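The instructor's notes for this session suggest beginning with a concrete chain rather than abstract definitions. Hand out the sequence below and ask the class to guess, before any prediction is shown, which regions might be ordered.
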Amino acid sequence: MTSFNLRQLKLRSGEQFRDEVELELEPLTSGGQRYLPIPERVPAELAITRASTGTAFELRFRARLHGPCQRCLADAVVERDVSAREYHASNPASPEELRSPYVADDRLDLSGWARDALVLSLPEQLLCRADCTGLCPECGKNLNEEPHEHKREESDPRWAVLAELRERL
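After discussion, reveal the predicted structure:
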């Protein structure tokens, strides 16, 4: 887990701290599937700005996830440029929505923040390609590799007499 000690900063209102940090990304679970960040450690830009009422945080990094396609189960790779911002009010009596959940005991949880920001940047479905057709619901074959259709014979007994009549004509 990567965190940043906020006690080491001696910022006054209006001052900004910028640094490059190395984030440790954790595996994610989406749609019941596990996705691995490769590489697990990525460089990130961290900016911390002191305001008169609190602190503003900004985090930027690039991440790549590997895991199964959610349609055909082939290998899927998703790359994202992530830019996230947080605000943390300095007054403990401030409403909860003005306090960042990633700040606790003067430490900024960079790994947790990066994970949540990455998840929010992901598409609804993680696919191997945009036009993935998935698996055949009848036989389970990959429709990207073997496009096919199954013949369906609908044999409703009420139509049997008409089918016989059609065959005779």
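Then share the key points. The longest helix spans residues 110-121. The chain has a mean pLDDT of 91.
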